[in-house]
Write a structure and sequence with these properties.
This protein is mainly alpha-helical and 304 residues long. It folds into 2 domains: 79 residues, Glutaredoxin (3-Layer(aba) Sandwich); 157 residues. The chain contains 12 helices and 5 strands. The strands form 2 sheets. The protein has a 3-stranded mixed β-sheet with strand order 2-1-3. The protein has a two-stranded antiparallel sheet with strand order 4-5. Helix 6 runs parallel beside helix 10. It starts with a helix and ends in a 7-residue tail after the last helix. The N terminus is likely disordered.
C-alpha cells in the first residue's frame, strides 16, 4: 500500500505530465515527418560550377554582369581572365564566413568538403585551372602601385570633390548620391534603412581617415589624390596593352579595372561625375578599361 502511495506521489511531482496532456498524446501520438525540400533559392548540395558570392543585383548576377563593388569586380574579372566559369550569387557581408565579400565556393568535384576561398586563394584557384600562364609578378614595385590604389584611389571612390569645394561628395557621405547608395546597399524599409545609412557613413568616414592618415575629412583632397594615382598609373601603362608590359592581363589589371570600369559606367547612376571627368583625362587608362571589358564581357558598354 505504501509503495502504491509513493508511486502516486511521483506521478504528481513537479516533472510529472498532467493527466489531460497524457490523454491528448494518446489520441494524437508524436509523429516524425519526412524533411521538406529546400526552397528554390537555397543552395543545393551539388555545385556543377564554382559559385562566386558578390554584391550584385539578382537579374545582373543571372546574366553574369560585372558586380557594382570594386572588391568583388576585381576577382570576378580575374576569374574571367583565367577562363574559369562561375555562377554569381548575390549576397552580403552577413553571409560571408570572413565577414566580407567576395568569397568563392568551388564546385562539388573540386574540393570535399568545400572550403570558402577568399583573396589570394581565389587567385590560386584561378591559376590552377587556367589554360594560360597567370602567375603574376611579385615585386616591391608592384606592392608600391597596389598601395597607390589603396591609399589614393579607394578613398576617392568613397569620397569625391564637388564643384563647391566646401561641400563633401561621397558615395556614402554626400546626400546627392544617397539614391545610388540606397539602390546598391540599403534595404527598402525606411525603419531599417535610416540607421544602416548612418552606420555606413560613420564607417566610411572612419575608413577614409584611417586610409588617408588625416585627422579630418578634406573635400578637395581625395580628388587630388585620385588624380595623382591616375597620373602614375597612366605613366606606368604608357602605350602598352597591359600593366608591366605583360602579354596578358593579371591581377593588377583586374584591380585597376575594378575601379575604372565602375567610375566610367554611366549605368551606375552617379550624381557627381568629378571622378569620371578626372579619369577621362587619361585616355590610355580609359582604353585599358574598355579593352579588358571587351576581353571578358564582349562588346564594350562603357561611355566617357
Amino acid at each position: 500500500m505504501a509503495a502504491v502511495a509513493a508511486a502516486g506521489a511521483d506521478e504528481r511531482g513537479w516533472f510529472a505530465v498532467p493527466p489531460p496532456v497524457r490523454e491528448l498524446f494518446k489520441l494524437f501520438p508524436l509523429r516524425v515527418y519526412a524533411a521538406d525540400p529546400l526552397p528554390a533559392r537555397a543552395p543545393d548540395r551539388t555545385r556543377e560550377r564554382p559559385r562566386l558570392y558578390v554584391f550584385a543585383r539578382e537579374e545582373e548576377a543571372q546574366r553574369g554582369r560585372p558586380s557594382y563593388n570594386p572588391s568583388c569586380l576585381k576577382w570576378q574579372t580575374y576569374l574571367r581572365i583565367a577562363g574559369v566559369d562561375v555562377d554569381l550569387v548575390p549576397s552580403s557581408n552577413h553571409a560571408s564566413p570572413s565577414g566580407s565579400l567576395p568569397f568563392l565556393l568551388p564546385s562539388s568535384a573540386d574540393l570535399r568538403p568545400a572550403v570558402p576561398l577568399t583573396g589570394g586563394k581565389i587567385a590560386c584557384y584561378a591559376q590552377d585551372r587556367s589554360s594560360q600562364d597567370l602567375h603574376d609578378m611579385s615585386s616591391p614595385r608592384l606592392e608600391a602601385y597596389l598601395a597607390l590604389l589603396t591609399r589614393n584611389l579607394r578613398p576617392a571612390w568613397s569620397q569625391v570633390q564637388a564643384a563647391n569645394p566646401l561641400q563633401l561628395h561621397a558615395l556614402y557621405i554626400f546626400p546627392a548620391n544617397t539614391p545610388l547608395l540606397t539602390t546598391l546597399y540599403l534595404p527598402s524599409n525606411i525603419l531599417l534603412r535610416t540607421p544602416l545609412l548612418h552606420t555606413l557613413r560613420t564607417a566610411a568616414t572612419a575608413e577614409i581617415l584611417k586610409t588617408t592618415r588625416r585627422p579630418l575629412l578634406s573635400p578637395p583632397q581625395p580628388l587630388a589624390d585620385a588624380d595623382a594615382a591616375f597620373r602614375s598609373l597612366a605613366a606606368l601603362l604608357a602605350d602598352d596593352e597591359w600593366f608591366f608590359a605583360a602579354d596578358a592581363p593579371g591581377t593588377f589589371d583586374a584591380e585597376v579595372f575594378a575601379y575604372t570600369h565602375l567610375i566610367l559606367d554611366k549605368g551606375m547612376g552617379w550624381r557627381d561625375d568629378s571622378l569620371r571627368r578626372c579619369l577621362a583625362a587619361f585616355p590610355n587608362l580609359v582604353r585599358h578599361s574598355t579593352r579588358l571589358y571587351e576581353r571578358c564581357w564582349g562588346a564594350a558598354e562603357t561611355e566617357v
